[in-house]
Structure formats: C-alpha cells, structure tokens
Amino acid sequence: MSLFEEVGDGQHDGLLGPVDIIETTQAIIFKVDTPGLSKADVKLRVTDNVLHITGERMQNKAPGITYHKSERAFGRFNRNFKLPANVDVQKVVANCDHGVLTINFPKFGGGEGGSLAMGDVEGDGSLNDTFSSVPISVFPTPAMGKLVVIPTDVSILEALKMLSSHHILAAPVRDVTQPDSAMWSEKFPGMLDMVGVVFYMLEKLQPKEPRDFNKEIENVEAFKKTTVGELAKVSSLSRFVPVLLNKGTLLDTMLLCGKYAVRRVPVIDPQTGELVNLVTQSALIQTLSANLSRFGSVAARTLADVGLGTPAPIFQVTTESPLMDAFQLIKEKDISGVPIIDPASGKIVGNISARDVRLIASSDKVYKLLNMPIHVYLEVVSDGDSTAAITCVPTETVEEVVQRLVRSRIHRIFVVDDKGLPLRVVSLRNILMKFVKEPPGYFGKKFSSSF
After folding, report:
1. Which of 28, 140, 187, 287 could lock onto 105 through a cystine, CB 3.0 to 4.6 A?
2. What are the phi and psi torsion angles at 302 (to 5°)?
3. Phi, psi at residue 78, to the nearest 5°?
4. Are strands 27-33 and 243-244 parallel, antiparallel or unpaired?
5. For residue range 127-153, what is the model confidence (pLDDT) as tens digits?
6. What is the pairing mode between strands 317-318 and 337-341?
7. How far apart are CA 136 and CA 246, in angstroms?
C-alpha cells in the first residue's frame, strides 16, 4: 500500500480544491485550496492514521433572496488520506489563510521515512477471490422494524437508552427534516456511536477551576437534553459509508472495516433507497470464525508471524487514575477503549471502553463518576462485563484469537509477554486486515459511494 493513498475517490465534485502533499525532514504537510470556505465549514479528523477532510459548502437561502443564475456548486465534500506511521497526529497544526487550508503533521523525532508499522500491513490478497464471491446478502437482514435508527430530534440521553436497550454501541442517524424520497446521503448524515458521545461529553462536562457546582449541574442537564441533530452540527458523527444490496460483497465490508477503520457498514437497497442492514466488525469476525477452516493460509499463522506480536504503543490508565483520564484518552487518541494497569504488577486488570458512557451519561452524578478512581468504579459501579479484558501471547494463532474474541464478545485483545506484561493491542480491525488486500483502483470501481 502506498503512503498518502486516498481512501476511495473522494466525494467533493469541485466543492473542495486541489490538494498538495509535501514532505520535509520534519513534517508531512497538506495544502488544500478552500476558496469561499471558513474554518467553520471544514472539519478535520484523524482515525487510525487516516486524515478525513469533511464539510459543506452552503448556499445562502435566507428569506428575500432570489437567484437569477446559480452556477456555483454547493453540497457536502469528503476526502480521506492514509498517513504514514511516523507522524504525530496529536501535534497536528491546521490553519486557513487566504483561501488555503494548511495541515501540518510533525514527524516523531523529526526523522525521515514513512514506512507503515507491521501491524498496519494488509494480507497478501490470496483470499480476495473467496471473499469477493460472497454477496453482502449473506448477512441476515433484521426483521421488520428491528434495524435501530436514531432520529435527529431525540436527546442524547434518549439515544443512549435506545442503544442500551438493543445492546448495541452505534446506530445510523436519520435526519427527520428530510423526506422519505430524499437520497440516502441526505437522509443519513452519519452514525451515532459511543465514541462520538464521549467526545461531546468531555467537551461539555470538563470540570473548570474554580469549581462551580451549580454550573456543573446545569451543564449535565444541558448535555442530556442536547438533541442528536444538535450534536451532529458541533461534533462529527461517524462516517455513513454504505454498499449496495445487489452489488456489495464480503470483500467490500472486509476492506472497509479492516483497512479503512469503518466500524459499521450500512447496506442500501438500490431499488427503494432504503437502509436494509448494518454489517458490523463483530458480524464479520463471527463469519470468519464459522469458516476458518477455509482460510488456513492466515488462520493457522501466529500473531508473531502476521506482525501482531511485536511491541507497539499502548495508551493506558492505572487503577488509581480518575475515570475522566480513560475517557480523555479515548477522545484524544480516537480509540474505542483503553486497558487498565495495576501499578504494582504492571499487568492488565480491566478495560474501559466507550460503552461505559451508557452508565455515566444516564447517572445523576456524572461529575462524581468522572472523578472517581477507576478501581472504585470497577468495584462499585461497573457490571464487570463491560470492563473485562482478555489477553493472549504472540505464539497464539490467528484462529485461536478470533475464536476467543467471538466467545468473549469483546472488540480487542491485549498481547502480553511471558511475564504477563502488555505488549500491544490487537483489535477486530487488525485481524480483518490480515485476511484481505485492496486491489488497485478497487474503491473507485466497486463501491456504491466514495467516501
């Protein structure tokens, strides 16, 4: 895979100008022409070392304005670029000046080179034909009315209750201002997931000194009453990247969820334009688990053999850390969970993930919980299932790890050394990547939409 490879063709239609990508000994720099756009019109986000440049060029439709001629293009734009592994995404600096957006990613240590970490390398493509022969319809379609969709006019708290009652972590968002006849891209602005809620919660509920407890109570109530539509305007929803029911394949979803870190893939019926299914990373892993005998070229290899057994950076908290620190890491690193380390032994004793937001956001004592030491949270508040962590060693096979992930219904496993000390995290996405390799130009030719 080439560095700076664009994910898909990019949906911009001239709404976003040309992009230059410049490398120096100290940084990787993106320069994007953005004439007529303000900082509020463009959103930047990095997920799993993919830079997402999104936004909307809007036409003034205020009352009393009549257009006698309209040649300028308006609408949403979205471009996505794979970043090299040696850039520090936490120190990115962006500014917009004279119609040019400049995004500067400093390199770690200011060094040269842009090789990808071994854990981010795809498979060899030998199983591509097998996966491409399986239609997306292999995944059971939910019974009538069972596909959970969150309307934009419900509150965050109501949305969290909907997710919790259906035991899911995310759902498509339906813009209630759009008619049923609208295009899917207008009806579904994105996906609401727990990570997105964490982002917004920390933004609104971050304690300030000196503490004003009356103000904090007001902030909690305002947070809970915020509608999903309001959240979508100020905080990016997860991407809504669909495939078509009559054209999508298992390879499509493996590439999207593996290589491009799309956590859930919507399925659209092209005849009706309706959302008919939602394929998750968990569903893909379960499908692999049921057919591992057919994929021995990957399944029989050890984690060390496929590049997932070597040490890698782990973002972690200790049992003594306040719960706020765990959510702050989830937000800053754009990850779905962090391990909890016993400071005495250095071993993993649990896991805080975005799903813990459900317990926090529905409580009347949000600030107390956020400032609670994690060991107290584990003992008193958590149900135990959501904070469980599973470990493995580098010599275990991919098949063994897949089976354990399926049995535990957990999205990540921690690789430890012979002393039980953590080496790295292996997520569902890391596993999926090892089974497939994107053919050249595949996204532009195969997918029902670019992203």
Report:
1. 28
2. -80, 165
3. -160, 115
4. unpaired
5. 999 999 999 988 888 765 578 999 999
6. parallel
7. 8
The count of C-alpha atoms lying within 13 angstroms of the C-alpha of 352, restricted to the half-sphere facing its C-beta, is 31
Q: How far apart are CA 340 and CA 389, in angstroms?
A: 9
Which pTM does this prediction carry?
A: 0.70
Token pair 């999104």: residue: 54
Note the maximum CA span of the chain. 74
Which region, left, alpha or beta, applies to residue 329 given φ > 0 means left and ψ of -120 to 50 means alpha?
Answer: alpha
The span from the CA of 178 to the CA of 186, in Å, is: 7
Written in H, E and C, the secondary structure of the chain is CCCCCECCCCECCCCCCCEEEEECCCEEEEEEECCCCCHHHEEEEEECCEEEEEEEECCCCCCCCCCCCCCCCCEEEEEEEECCCCECHHHCEEEEECCEEEEEEEEHHHCCCCCCCHHHCCCCCCCHHHHHCCEHHHCCCCCCCCCCCEECCCEHHHHHHHHHHCCCCEEEEECCCCCCCCCHHHHCCEEEEHHHHHHHHHHHHCCCCCCCHHHHHHHHHHHHHCEHHHHHHHCCCECCCCEECCCCEHHHHHHHHHCCCCCEEEEEECCCCEEEEEEEHHHHHHHHHHCHHHHHHHHCCECCCCCCCCCCCCCCEECCCEHHHHHHHHHHHCCCEEEEECCCCCCEEEEEEHHHHHHHHCCCCHHHHHCCEHHHHHHHHCCCCCCCCCEECCCCEHHHHHHHHHHHCCCEEEEECCCCCEEEEEEHHHHHHCCCCCCCCHHHHHCCCCC
Structure tokens at 196: 């997105």
Of 353, 355, 375, 377, which is closest to residue 365 (Cα–Cα)? 377
pLDDT score, position 218 = 73
CA-CA distances (angstroms) from residue 38 to 80, 287, 374?
A: 19, 45, 41
Q: What percent of the chain has pLDDT over 90?
A: 28
User: How far is Cα 78 from Cα 450, in angstroms, rounded to an integer?
Assistant: 9
- For residue 445, is it left (φ>0), alpha (ψ between -120 and 50) or beta? alpha
In angstroms, the CA 403 to CA 54 distance is 37
Closest alpha carbon to 337 in 350, 352, 349, 315: 352
Q: At which residue do the structure tokens 């706020």 appear?
A: 324
pLDDT at 281 over 90: no
